[in-house]
Automatic annotation (TrEMBL), chain A:
Similarity comment text for this entry: Belongs to the leucine-binding protein family.
Organism: Actinomadura craniellae
Name this protein carries in UniProt: ABC transporter substrate-binding protein
Pfam families in the record: Peripla_BP_6
Family matches, as Gene3D superfamilies: 3.40.50.2300
UniProt keyword terms in alphabetical order: Signal
Signal sequence annotation: 1-26
Keyword Transcription: no
């Protein structure tokens, strides 16, 4: 036995010594400089720039993930047809994590070493879990979630106003148009997660400033029947109902509230509505007095940039719905593309060069009518929100009621950081 | 039994351990992380196998005890600040306390765990998952609610399990994952060894008798309720240890992870690997943990599997189908799980050789 242990130790030592000589890991990291004098970061070669996508194609956010990913694929294809960026083709590496934390983490572990940036990361709980690592790996990442807790990190770039900002702008609009009178009561039904928590922050702030009372109704994302909650709010005679829930819950709440005799306005966060709802029994309730506060411009708006996305998407993915995910996905590609172009100009396609280039953009304009400011990361890149309404005829399923507006109220609001 | 000679078994073990020790010097971040998930799952699954496999007590609450371990560690190790409360204890002490805490919580549940048998306990433990999810999302100052809490890296004084300070061994930089790999491996070996001891000794025989014939066990003088409660506590502690390792790998704990799906995954691990044995739990854990990750990563090269986003059969769906098919196949054809199959093959080969001689 003694001999065995000694022998084992010897075998181990020999193997360990042999191991160290020929390991890939021993090279001291990637990098180097291309033939054109551009410094290379992870995922960059003389011919390609790889970008990572951590999406959800099989989980609860599959419709969103599919729209985002396909729009990003469209963007990459168009860029490559025009010769790429910096003389290099873009390449998307898509990983389906199904909204699962562990799978997302393993996808991230793979992609952080092999791609330059991550133009799509679905799941704010995933983004929260990965935040520390994203910061230490310096990967420019676009989380596809809009809660205030994702602010405050240099490497995470939110693409629009956070849920709380949307709510403040929305409530301000309700008060300004007289739909809700000062001193009235708002009922807010929200998910018990960071989406709902973020929206509620905005509601509380706006209600406080306008002298409104708030009745809170917290629900689980798995609850789909909101009869009790919406019925209770209607019974309490609230003047307006706010919804920070999913589309299924919105349909239930709007339907129940109207049946219970609620006449006031209903305002949803941007994830509270989907065009598919107009094919359900809730349709009459949604076409009357139902509004959505959102950062996304409806895709059918008459702008050349949007027409290009519509036509390109219809040609590449015929028959597929053109919802807000398409515009958001395409824009996220453009945001990363813009950063790569700028980084290329200073001949630095490393992670450091990319974030420097990205953070130097103070008025990013992709022809959608507004601009985004990326020079800070402790507040959203814009504070402007659209108020839209369900519309059966429109491609996106919504039409604009009030164009993008930054309310006076939101100017005094400081978005709380995580 | 046709056992291999002792020296063969020992050399196989040594070679195996040596191979595992070499992994961090070669594997990239993806494999390091996948491997760490698998090791943590193996420790958790060994615990569940003691309870469900050896004693026949179904538990759906395993994910809850993983959460107790993970959040317990964070609570004990973190300092209090504006948002969160914590005890700020030295991290090794916090890790040990977290495992003990999981055992304690299991002990609190033991009046129930001792009295209910089999599937009835499964239903009762299901409640733990929902209670756990409720606590995790509402006790914000302890758990950090939906956004979770940052996990302080384990600090042994001479070695910190983090990316900095830098540590280079034989020209290979060893980051947090590589360092954790060695720790997790040691813990796995100890866990497996303890469980093996329990299963092969008197307690193991008592547990198996409880599973096979409760009345017979009672007649023979086995205190059935006490054994059931004790094995529940032990299994909770295994889950707690797995939870601590997972927390260290995650670096940020999020409540969504510790749900019903995770509990079912653990049951699938021990069924697929083999009920009632340590090796079975480990094989099942590796299989269930690595399968979806590997399929996703190498989806580009697999036949019949479409690239994500292009429509068609996605890798995640493929993983789920294989997973389901594996459970059905094991239940139908391999009563002893993957490990049982291995044992049968070995016996068959040995028997043939024996006959030939």
């Amino acid at each position: 036995m003694k001999l065995n242990i000694r022998m084992s130790a010897a075998v181990l030592a020999v193997l360990l010594a042999a191991a160290t000589g020929c390991s890939d890991k021993a090279t001291g990291g990637s990098g180097g400089t291309g033939k054109d004098g551009v410094k290379h970061g992870p995922g960059v070669t003389d011919t390609t720039i790889k970008l990572g996508v951590i999406t959800d194609l099989t989980g609860p956010y599959a419709p969103l993930g599919k729209g985002l990913t396909q729009a990003e694929q469209l963007y990459v294809e168009e860029i490559n047809k025009a010769g790429g960026i910096c003389g290099r083709k873009l390449e998307l590496v898509v990983r389906d994590a199904g909204y699962d934390v562990q799978k997302s983490m393993s996808a991230y572990s793979e992609l952080q070493g092999s791609t330059l940036a991550i133009p799509q990361l679905i799941g704010s709980h995933v983004a929260s879990a990965l935040k520390t690592r994203i910061n230490s790996d310096k990967v420019l990442t676009i989380p596809m979630a809009w809660s205030n807790t994702l602010l405050g990190s240099e490497y995470l770039q939110i693409t629009g106003p956070t849920y709380d900002v949307d709510m403040i702008n929305g409530i301000d609009w309700l008060v300004k148009t007289g739909a809700v009178k000062k001193g009235g009561t708002l009922g807010h039904i929200y998910f018990d997660n960071d989406y709902g928590a973020s929206a509620l922050l905005g509601t509380k702030y706006a209600a406080d400033k306008h002298g409104l009372k708030v009745v809170e109704q917290k629900i689980k994302p798995t609850d789909t029947d909101l009869t009790n909650q919406a019925g209770a709010l209607a019974k309490q005679k609230v003047d307006g109902i706010l919804l920070s829930v999913g589309p299924a819950q919105s349909a239930s709440a709007a339907g129940v509230a109207r049946v219970a005799g609620f006449k006031g306005p209903i305002l949803g966060s941007n994830s509270a509505y989907a065009k598919q709802l107009l094919a359900t029994k809730a349709k009459p309730a949604l076409l009357q007095g139902f509004y959505i506060a959102t950062a996304g411009i409806p895709i059918q708006e008459d702008l050349p940039a949007l027409k290009k996305i519509r036509d390109g998407y219809a040609a590449k993915f015929p028959g597929q719905p053109q919802d807000s995910a398409v515009v958001t996905g395409y824009s996220s590609g453009e945001i990363i593309g813009n950063a790569i172009k700028k980084a290329c100009a200073s001949k630095d396609l490393t992670r450091e060069g990319l974030i420097k280039a990205h953070r130097s953009t103070n008025a990013f304009d992709n022809g959608q009518g507004g601009t985004l400011d990326f020079t800070y990361f402790d507040k959203p890149p814009t504070l402007q929100t659209f108020i839209v309404q369900p519309d059966e005829q429109a491609i996106s399923g919504t039409k604009i009621v009030q164009n993008r507006t930054e309310s006076e109220l939101v100017k005094g609001y400081k978005v709380p950081l995580a | 039994m046709f056992e291999s000679p002792r020296w063969v078994r020992i050399s196989a073990l040594v070679a195996g351990v040596a191979l595992m020790l070499l992994v961090p010097f070669y594997a990239d971040t993806f494999w390091m992380q996948a491997g760490l998930f698998a090791i943590a799952a193996a420790i958790g699954a060994i615990g569940l196998n003691l309870l469900t496999g050896a004693t026949g007590q179904l538990s759906l609450g395993h994910a809850f005890f993983l959460a107790v371990g993970a959040y317990g560690y964070v609570y004990f190790a973190s300092e209090s600040d504006n948002h969160f409360v914590g005890l700020g204890l030295p991290t090794p002490v916090a890790a040990i306390l977290a495992v003990l805490l999981a055992g304690l919580v299991g002990g609190i549940f033991s009046p129930i765990a001792g009295r209910l048998k089999g599937t009835y306990l499964g239903i009762a433990t299901l409640a733990l998952i929902f209670i756990g999810q409720h606590i995790l999302s509402n006790a914000e100052s302890v758990t950090g609610s939906h956004n979770g809490r940052q996990v302080p890296p384990l600090d042994l004084g001479f070695l910190v399990f983090d990316d900095s300070p830098e540590l280079v061994v034989a020209n290979v930089p060893l980051g947090a994952f590589e360092r954790l790999w060695f720790l997790a491996l040691i813990l796995l070996v100890i866990s497996a060894w303890v469980a093996r001891g329990v299963l092969r000794g008197r307690p193991g025989r008592a547990l198996n008798t409880i599973r096979d014939h409760e009345i017979a066990a009672g007649v023979m003088g086995v205190p059935v309720a006490r054994y059931r409660a004790a094995v529940f506590v032990l299994s909770s502690m295994y889950a707690g240890l797995a939870g601590v390792i997972l927390a260290l790998v995650f670096r940020q704990t999020v409540p969504d992870y510790f749900g019903i799906i995770l509990a079912l995954d653990y049951l699938a691990m021990i069924v697929i690997g083999g009920l009632g044995t340590v090796a079975g739990a480990m094989i099942g854990a590796v299989f269930i943990t690595l399968l979806p990750q590997v399929l996703t990563r190498y989806s580009d090269g697999l036949p019949l599997v479409a690239a994500p986003g292009s429509g068609g059969f996605s890798p995640a769906e493929a993983a789920r189908i294989i997973y389901g098919a594996a459970v059905v196949a094991v239940v139908l054809f391999l009563p002893g799980g993957l490990f049982g199959m291995w044992t049968r093959i070995r016996l068959a080969v040995a028997a043939r050789r024996h006959r030939a001689v």
